[in-house]
Amino acid sequence: MGSLEAMETHSSSQARYYNEAQRIKVAQGVSGSIMDRGSVHQLVPYLVAGVQHGMQQVGASSLAHLVQMTTTGLLRFEHRSSSAQMEGGVHSLYSYEKRLF
Fold first, then answer.
1. Where are the domains of the chain?
2. Among 3, 6, 20, 80, which is least packed by CB within 10 angstroms?
């Protein structure tokens, strides 16, 4: 890491980004904290259900069938730009609250 906190804590970070002759240290990264969102065990069932629903929508009965559909060209995926993803999401509402579970 190139954050000032990492360089103060770990000499390996300091050695990687700076030599000993440099007196001024400029951060090449940031450090911070995020709020704990709980155990991954709470999220996995939602991921599994999402994959199952997606496979059902494309007509794949198993992961092997999904791979076969992809390799034969029966199922194709498209790359979407970040603008297209935003346009495809919820927009033009006065208020919207995204709830994971």
1. 1-33, 34-75
2. 20
